[in-house]
Design a protein that fits this description.
The complex is a heterotrimer of chains A (295), B (440) and C (278). Chain A has 13 helices and 2 strands; from the N terminus they run αββαααααααααααα. By secondary structure, chain A is mostly helical. Classes of the chains: A mainly alpha (295), B alpha/beta (440), C mainly alpha (278).
Chain lengths: 295, 440, 278
């Protein structure tokens, strides 16, 4: 940014600009969040008054083996989702960033799963990945390999669900990457081409570095989104078999809306918040110290 | 862009006014008018309920009923918050799974006086009222049951005929059942994959408990309020899981993940199925005439009496602080069956109102399963049990948590992930951790 | 490889990819023309049994007549259009201030916004419900509109990122012209932002459109239902009417697709002078 002495805005102007946001943030977000924080120290079934139990919920969490499993599941899901989304989203964006005929129809088609309800997506994939008659397993069998239980094998199920989530959401990241790609001046790429760079060289040498703000943005959003996996898990596996595809968000749902242990659910939520918060801080740190500014 | 923003801002203001306006719809009541709030949880019933309200309002001038319909999943969250704020609706739907918790928390109107001073049991079956009382763990009537649901063995007549097996009867033994299941497990095209299983189940409550009770089993020790399956219950679980592991007449749970659970039987992938009696309605609608099917009692085990049924009522409760208890009682009786026709009942749910249950059209001969429906009426008047406790959904593994608890443990056995003993031990430990929170 | 071969290859690859993405939707459409007993058959049936009969549109007809789907679609469209427009307005103001103005507390506001983005709705919904109950907003559209309006963490984040990347030459030109802050915002920065705003509109509209929990908890008058609540009517305590649910699901996706196709043109507008040639 240019260094300026000319004051183009008054000292209170920024507050005018952000006033509606700050108001909404406080009333609709911060108050409920603070309230949940208080609830995480209580035992509350929604019916009676909350009972204050100090660190009871957190102690119960840390003593629970299942909780460790769920925490690790959550991280595994996120890793698969974030890497998958960025690679696939970028690949799709590059693939369709072209002006051939009918490209908007193709874009819309790839975007379809994003807007399709998770319930429908879950049902269809359960059916495609079905053990005996599923299309995928029939194809695998046709080449003479014993197909796995995509959703019945505790070792596989989490990756299966995470992959379906990647498939569902990659069109969304594609759009964001597409917007980023189109901000790269054509002249830059053209001149690289004139200098004899091939596709791969110009992609890794020019496109990717120029895209780094977008990559960072997508990374941040993908990390945050990777924890919001409730709907697909609900419609595909309900967290099973056992706890094998249970995640923190799903566990929050179970405790708050199935078992009505609202205090306990809030404690799980705060553990989740700490995990996401740490990852996001790390992400910002890396950006600050490892990427070069544009211009 | 500036223009766009102006338009957006104008629209925004207009909409805020519009949206705010819609809350003014609550009518300003005439002085003597009584208004009752009625909450229910089945969105597919909105129209039928409006018709019922219109009839009731016509018969009771000056009474106005407002219906609030909440989806089944959100219903409990929303009504719990209402209860917490002392704003329970006058009449609301109550599930057997929560009767005990709500009765003990004083969130339902004690109906004893109404029940006693009215001709209640001329109109309704006392036995069904008593089931709710039993589940509530109190000595009072807190809810008015409108329907009883039980469980039944569904069988595919076409499959039985094709395999040359005689249809099940109400006095079938477990051996009869297993030998039929063996004959009905068929690989039709010899590709090494079973195309029709004799039977199918997973850890779901309505798949398992009927067998436990049909063998005089108990899952809960009611004196200590702990999960302690007795030998009869263990025998039932062992018999079921052995259908998968030893007899190989039923698939493990992991083989059926591509199905919606209610579709396995409908699509002919299993010739027999045990689940709630409400699926009579589903089968009538979905299967039509393309498959012939029937229902019988779940076969009694070697220690069973051929009497005990797994069944529970759905009820209406009245808010403890309602301003018009008499009218609320009158309306609750009305919607619990007194004012209804059989057509508003989901087929397979047994009305608690005598005139409806005894209506010959309950076992409509022109619809499947015809006279088999009488078995449900017989069950309704016999002894009945459940395992509902506070925290049931959690230890049992129900709804969104069905891969955990007892449900998850049973699936782990059939999927070969845990041995029978290890799974039962795991289920016992986790169930008792839950129960210990509710029953000190 | 010649240019022509390259184009053909690209077509082939794009088509293959598209099939993978579109297949489940095709399945939904095909099943929405089936009677309930044929849905989910295993092994699957691909040709709908109702198609080519006079009952072909039965499921759709039932969804529209018996379940009043048109009304609910209209409700969702206007409610969520407003919510998205409001979000764009408020977020662009905030995003601009956070990106271009230096003031104490900006870091705090931005961090808090990001924080709220991370919290899943299941965590805060119960306190939120109490707030709306106290505000007496139950059974109105306000809980669906106002929070999305005022507390769009994602939109603010996205537009802040965008505004920070706008070439500083434009900013300097504004300074030279002596514009004030409002002119800087509306005449210089917002003019550049049609792409991100269209993207934000798609995302905000879509996120709200698919939200089930809030409308389910806050709306009880039937005339006010949104599409997602209407879809839940096909599921009762024990069972799901899949044929209607799928027909309804297909219908509920169409407005989103329209929004996408419409907004896409704005996103691609930028391409005119910068398209990468294949």
């Amino acid at each position: 940014m240019a260094d300026i002495t000319y004051k183009w805005h008054k000292s209170y102007t920024p507050w005018l600009f952000i006033f509606p946001t700050v108001l909404g943030l406080t009333v609709f977000r911060l108050i409920p969040i603070a309230w949940s924080f208080y609830l995480s120290f209580t035992d509350w079934n929604l019916l009676a008054k909350p009972t204050f139990i100090q660190l009871g919920n957190y102690k119960e969490l840390l003593a629970s083996e299942d909780f460790i499993t769920i925490l690790l599941n959550t991280l595994q899901f996120s890793v698969v989702y974030v890497i998958g989304s960025i690679v696939l989203g970028l690949a799709l964006a590059v693939l369709i960033n072209t002006k051939i005929k009918g490209i908007s129809a193709f874009r819309a088609a790839i975007y379809l799963p994003v807007v399709t309800s998770a319930v429908a997506v879950g049902i269809v994939w359960n059916w495609i990945l079905g053990p005996t008659y599923g299309i995928v397993n029939n194809l695998i069998e046709a080449i003479g390999i014993t197909p796995p239980y995509w959703l019945g094998d505790p070792k596989l199920v989490l990756n299966t669900v995470a992959s379906v989530q990647v498939w569902k959401m990659s069109g969304y990241y594609m759009i964001i990457f597409l917007a980023g790609l189109q901000n790269i001046p054509a002249e830059t790429l053209e001149s690289a081409r004139v200098d004899g760079a091939n596709h791969r060289q110009s992609f890794f040498g020019i496109t990717l570095p120029m895209l780094s703000p977008t990559v960072f943005f997508v990374l941040t959003i993908a990390i945050i989104d990777s924890f919001k996996n409730f709907e697909l898990i609900y419609s595909m596996t309900k967290g099973g078999p056992g706890n094998s595809s249970n995640t923190l968000v799903y566990d929050v749902y179970l405790n708050a809306f199935v078992y009505y242990r609202v205090g306990f659910a809030s404690a799980i939520a705060y553990v989740l918040l700490i995990v996401v918060g740490l990852l996001t801080v790390a992400n910002f740190y890396i950006r600050k110290h490892h990427t070069q500014p544009l211009d | 862009m500036k223009k766009l923003l102006t338009v957006a801002l104008a629209l925004l203001l207009a909409s805020t006014l519009f949206a705010a306006g819609s809350q003014e719809t609550a009518s300003t009541a005439a002085p003597k008018e009584i208004t009752l709030d009625w909450w229910t949880w089945d969105p597919s019933m909105v129209d039928q309920n409006n018709a019922i309200i219109a009839k009731f309002e016509a018969a009771n001038p000056g009474v106005k009923i407002t219906q609030t319909m909440v989806g089944t999943k959100e219903y409990w969250t929303k009504i719990r918050i209402q209860a917490n704020q002392n704003k329970l609706p006058d009449v609301y739907t109550m599930s057997s799974g929560y009767v005990e918790e709500w009765a003990k928390a004083g969130l339902m109107y004690n109906l004893d006086n109404f029940v006693k001073n009215d001709d209640t049991f001329n109109v309704f079956y006392k036995s069904i009222f008593d089931v709710v009382k039993g589940i509530s763990g109190t000595d009072s009537y807190y809810a008015i049951p409108f329907a009883l649901v039980t469980t039944a063995l569904y069988y595919n007549k076409d499959a039985f005929d094709a395999a040359g097996v005689a249809y099940p009867t109400n006095d079938w033994t477990w051996d009869d059942f297993r030998s039929a299941a063996k004959k009905l497990t068929i690989d039709k095209n010899n590709d090494g994959k079973i195309d029709q299983w004799g039977f199918w189940f997973y850890g779901r409550y309505a798949h398992i408990e009927p067998w436990v009770y049909a063998n005089n089993g108990k899952l809960i020790d009611r004196t200590t309020m702990r999960f302690a399956p007795n030998q009869q219950a263990i025998d039932a679980l062992k018999m079921l899981t052995n259908l998968v592991l030893v007899d190989k007449v039923a698939p493990p749970q992991k083989d059926m993940t591509s199905f919606q659970q209610q579709d396995v039987f409908q699509q002919g992938a299993a010739a027999m199925w045990v689940d709630g009696s409400w699926f009579v309605d589903t089968l009538r609608k979905n299967v039509g005439d393309s498959m012939r099917w029937g229902i019988v009692r779940v076969p009694s085990g070697p220690s069973g009496s051929n009497e005990m049924t797994y069944g529970w009522p759905d009820s209406y409760a009245i808010a403890p602080n309602t301003k018009n208890p008499e009218m609320a009682w009158k309306f609750a009786r009305y919607v619990a069956g007194e004012g209804l026709g059989l057509d508003v009942y989901m087929a397979g749910k047994i009305p608690s109102a005598k005139k409806l249950a005894e209506d010959p059209m309950f076992s409509d001969p022109n619809q499947q399963p015809g006279a088999d429906m009488n078995m449900l009426i017989a069950q309704a008047s016999g002894p009945m049990t459940t395992s509902f406790t506070q925290g049931w959904g959690e230890w049992r593994g129900y709804g969104g948590g069905e891969t955990l608890g007892l449900n998850g443990a049973i699936d782990a056995i059939t999927n070969g992930q845990l041995t029978f003993d290890a799974a039962i031990k795991k289920a016992t430990d986790s169930a008792n951790a839950v129960l210990a929170r509710y029953y000190k | 490889m010649t240019k022509k071969q390259e184009t053909i290859l690209r077509y082939v690859v794009i088509s293959l990819v598209t099939i993978i993405y579109i297949f489940p939707f095709i399945w939904m459409i095909s099943n929405s023309f089936m009677s309930e007993k044929n849905i989910f058959s295993v092994p699957p049936k691909f040709i709908p049994d109702l198609l080519f009969t006079n009952q072909a549109f039965d499921n759709y007809r039932e969804v529209f007549t018996q379940y009043n789907f048109g009304r609910y679609t209209f409700n969702s469209v206007w409610v969520y259009t407003l919510a998205a427009l409001g979000q764009i307005f408020v977020c662009s103001l905030a995003g601009f201030a956070l990106a271009k103005m230096k003031f104490r507390g900006s870091g705090l506001v931005f961090s808090l916004l990001l924080l709220t983005l991370m919290i899943p709705v299941q965590v805060t919904i119960i306190p939120e419900y109490y707030i709306f109950m106290k505000l007496n907003w139950m059974d109105t559209y306000l809980p669906l509109i106002v929070p999305s309006f005022l507390a769009g963490g994602f939109g603010t984040f996205m537009l802040k990122e965008f505004f920070s990347q706008v070439p500083s030459a434009l900013f300097d030109a504004g300074i030279i012209d002596g514009v004030n802050s409002y002119q800087m915002f509306s005449r210089i920065y917002m003019r550049q932002a049609s792409g991100p705003i269209a993207t934000l509109f798609i995302i905000a509209f879509m996120n709200n459109w698919n939200d089930l929990l809030r409308p389910m908890l806050y709306l009880s008058t039937r005339e006010l239902y949104t599409v997602t609540v209407a879809l839940s009517q096909f599921q009762n305590q024990y069972d799901v009417q899949w044929n209607l649910l799928l027909a309804g699901s297909v219908l509920s996706v169409l407005p989103l697709l329209l929004v996408f196709v419409f907004c896409q043109r704005y996103i691609i507008e930028n391409t005119m002078n910068s398209g990468i040639k294949g």
